[in-house]
Sequence to fold (425 residues):
Amino acid sequence: MRRAAALSALLLAALLLAGCGAPQDAPAAEPTPEPLCAHDWRDGVCSLCGEVCVHDWAEGVCRVCGMVCAHDWAEGVCRVCGMVCAHDWDEGVCTICGRVCTHEDHDRETRECRVCGLTVPHRYVNCVCSCGARPQYVEDLKLYPEEVLVNEEGPGQIDSYVYNRLTGEIVEGDRKRNHFERVVLIYTPCGYDPEGAYDVVFLTNASNTNSAAWLTKGYSFDSQHCHFTGKKLLDGMIAQGYCEPTIFVSIEYRRNASPAKTAEMYERELRRDVLPFLIENYATYASLDENRRVIPAREHFAHTGASFGSTMSWELMTRCADLFSYWGLYSGRLSEGVPIVRAIDEAAAQYPLDFVYVGGGKGEPASGTFEKYTAGIIEDCVSLEEGKNIAFLNLDHAIHWHPTWFVLLHNSMQVFFRNRYEPLG
Fold:
């Protein structure tokens, strides 16, 4: 019994010693990591372990695997590595990435692009080029900007109507059935939006011509220039930014002996029939009241005339100042004995004239007369001030014909609807 008790005591002592600080077993050692792959990169993929390289691009070369980017260019920047193309320009196109130069940064004098080195024409938006240059008024018929003459992009459309001056009826067509009828041509620019609103320019013809003279008849400035029509010229002016998209109306009038009588008849037909038809069927700024009377938007309407059409337009200016704020008067003098100065001032007192652009050709027999009459108007009219709201220009190498009047229209369109005139010289 004593032996059994002693053994039990020894066992209990051993258990107590184990719970009171006896040494513990050491923790198991962690496994040794496998060695990393040394990578044998081939086209961005390791041939040993198959890992795909997460590229770290620098100038089109990966710093990790050495892969050279094949480049997916978009506007001169690689979509893959972000590298910007250094560009090797050839005629305005990069031979590396295919980018086409916009030529926005070019010298206004030499017209040389500072990016690609190509000599380019000015591209005007609202008569201002991206380089800061403005179009120059054309002073010489032979120096008309060729880019306008050869431009065939963005063609506008011409709608033809037959107007009966007795009944006021206006129908689609281009053939007159009797001497009471006239053809009215309406030009709408490329991209014309029927829901929009456009400035409008009326073009009145010279004697013994018709509405086709302004828009569809062919002309040539000289033997070195290609033939053109007024429509083609307007297409080019709009495409090149020499003027904003505009509606042009070429309209005939019935000459009635004196300019005053012709203007009186023309005004009646204009207010009663032609303008209401235009406003109802085209996107202009003007509107009609419940009686189809015109509610004008004069700051968006211009009226021009050539030769006798210009002489008639001087008279019309005193009658229709509420309808038109801009006037182009080409190769036509004032009629004798008409108190036109007083009438212009009276009309302008209520409806100020934004701009009157007067011109002719130095080769015209009446060239000096045009200039003399215009100088007299400027001197005597209180409402007109040279360089502010009236200007006169005589073109070199220009005679009494439509190419002269087209150039004057070109110059006028740089002022019309902007009321911004910068004198030559």
Summary: The chain has nine helices and 23 strands. Residues 10-17 have pLDDT under 50 and may be disordered.
